[in-house]
Amino acid sequence: MKLPLVAVLSVCATPALASGGLSCEAKTTQASLEIESGVTRGMGSPLFNFRGSAQIAAKSVAADLRKIAFGQANVAQYWLDARELRLVVYREREGSQPHGYVEVTILAKAAGDEGKYKGTFALTAYDTAGDRERTHKAGGRVSCFVE
Question: Over the chain, what is the mean pLDDT?
Answer without folding.
Answer: 88
